[in-house]
Amino acid sequence: MASENIIEVQKLHVGFERKIALSSLSFSIQKGERVALIGPSGAGKTTLLNTLATFITPTEGELQITGLNHQDSKNRKKLAKKIGMIRQQFDLVSPLPVIHNVLAGRLADWGFFKSLFSLLVPQEKTLAMKALDRVGLKDKLYARTSTLSGGEQQRVALARLLVQKPEIILADEPVASLDPARAEDVLSILAKLVTEENQTLIASLHSVEYAKKYFTRVIALRDGEIFFDLPSEKIEDQNLAALYELKGKS
Ligand SMILES: Nc1ncnc2c1ncn2[C@@H]1O[C@H](COP(=O)(O)OP(=O)(O)OP(=O)(O)O)[C@@H](O)[C@H]1O
Ligand SMILES: [Mg+2]
Fold it and tell me: C or N terminus of the chain, fewer CB within 10 Å?
């Protein structure tokens, strides 16, 4: 049923000056899927995530998110509430206490004065506490964010998502700067939270192992096109060898 599709992409094309970054991509994603985007450097993963996040306007093609047409500027605000983003650099304000960064997830819903006032007296403190508890950082509510380790900061970014409650989470290499143990820790929390909240997750990754372990589906991009799109358990070594094969090799 078409209405189950939370994201529908038809013949999407994104170009930068003379460079074609994404070429004629078509796919749909259903609510609750956990999709890993993999592929060699320059394949178009970040461009696709930024296009889904409405930061980039496609050159051609159709894009619908929760049935809302992406190109219609009237939908921008509605889409901003439905989409949450995490990046490699976490986008946290490091001199501020953790609680402020978690509550930043509410900014799209709060008015200007409530947001400003919350910097002095954090509003909805219980909400922040519950979210931090779920990511295992209950005791860090008032810690200065910059004093936390990379893995802990990424958990703060997850707590912020819990507070924002977006329907769709887009993550661009969310664990690239973490050591393997912290990376697995963050990915397993992320996969668990997304499943509990029935959210849809799309994340770019350089680790095929993590893609297979924590995601239900893998979309592989190469040169701006879909190279394969498979359920995680169906990926074979030969698919991966072909995906990452260096050009010019015969
Ligand atoms: N703002 C831009 N202007 C011009 N070209 C761009 C721009 N952003 C991306 N590109 C180009 O588009 C292509 C896709 O880049 P993108 O960053 O999406 O790749 P990626 O798959 O995320 O790579 P990586 O794994 O290295 O992060 C690359 O060739 C890149 O040079
Ligand atoms: Mg990238």
Answer: C
- For the chain, the residue count is 250
**Whose Cα sits closest to atom 18 in ligand 1?**
44
Global pTM reads 0.89
Ligand closest in space to the Cα of 45: 1
- Ligand 2 centre distance from Cα of residue 205 (Å): 9
Q: Whose alpha carbon is nearest atom 11 of ligand 1?
A: 21
- Alpha-carbon span 203 to 34, nearest angstrom: 8
Burial class (CB in 10 A: 0-12, 13-18, 19+), 166: buried
Measuring CA to CA, which residue among 66, 68, 67, 69 is closest to residue 58?
A: 69
- Domains of the chain, CATH where assigned: 5-249 (3.40.50.300)
Closest CA to 95 of 144, 160, 149, 166: 144
Taking CA atoms only, the protein residue closest to ligand 1 atom 6 is 16
Q: Ligand 2 centre and the CA of 127: distance in Å?
A: 32
Question: In this predicted model, what pLDDT tens digit does every residue of 19-76 receive, in sequence order?
Answer: 999 999 999 999 999 999 999 999 999 999 999 998 899 999 999 999 898 878 888 8
What phi and psi, each to the nearest 5 degrees, are found at residue 142? -105, 10
- What is the tens place of the pLDDT at every residue in 151-174? 899 899 999 988 988 999 999 998
- In whole angstroms, what is the distance from residue 131 CA to residue 113 CA? 23
Q: How far apart are CA 27 and CA 219, in angstroms?
A: 9
Token digits of residue 78: 């509605």
Q: Do residues 202 and 18 touch, judged by C-beta distance below 8 A?
A: no
Ligand 2 center to 44 CA (angstroms)? 7
